[in-house]
Amino acid sequence: MSGPPKPGQRTTPAGAPGGMQLFDRDGSRKYLTVAERARFLRAAEQAPREARTLCMTLAWSGCRLSEALALTADRVDLAGGVLVFATLKKRQDGIYRAVPVPPSLLEALDLVHGIREAQRRRGRGAAARLWPWSRMTGWRAVHAVMAAAGLSGPAASPKGLRHAFGVAAVSSGIPLNMVQKWLGHAQLSTTAIYADAVGAEEQDIARKMWG
């Protein structure tokens, strides 16, 4: 049986589908902090090229691992500065969302995966998956970088990167409806869990109120 919530820990909020929380049943944090995500990205710089770009994509877009592995060259919008993901957890197919990402990620994707070259071909690279890997292969690549960064526990996972994106976005003052769009949540109540950030992230939010 799990003990009482830790200081700053919140129980399942009303309306949160599936009871999504930022802590597991043992009270362990399920998201990477800003500092931990930075360590992860530094470790990714030393990983094989395809693993590095996968890790960067997960960290900077907040997408699910399955969504990243389904990404094709035609959905990398170099001019618009966005990645276009098929939102795979929706109940119907053909639901897409565009997520703005840093220029450094777009440059890395083009360098490693030949985005511009693929988009010049017939079909604009619609059949060219960036990572033609199984989910397990992708998970192992991310796990290896987490280990190299000295990260472990529930947060050291692709889902931990997704949660980190949500917390970082809210901490930066991004409106919840925008974060909802970027993460592909069906309900705003799911996204609202990221307003429940703790530790340094909660302190950053509080400082904005203090002026």
Automatic annotation (TrEMBL):
The keyword DNA-binding is assigned to this record: yes
Keyword DNA-binding (UniProt): yes
Disordered, as annotated region: 1-24
Domain Tyr recombinase span(s) in chain numbering: 27-207
InterPro entries to which the protein is assigned, alphabetical: DNA_brk_join_enz (IPR011010), Integrase-like_cat_sf (IPR013762), Integrase_catalytic (IPR002104), Tyrosine_recombinase_XerCD (IPR050090)
UniProt feature coiled coil, ranges: none
SUPFAM superfamilies: DNA breaking-rejoining enzymes (SSF56349)
Keywords assigned by UniProt, alphabetized: DNA integration, DNA recombination, DNA-binding
Pfam families for this protein: Phage_integrase
Similarity field: Belongs to the 'phage' integrase family.
Protein name (record): Tyrosine-type recombinase/integrase
Organism: Acetobacter musti
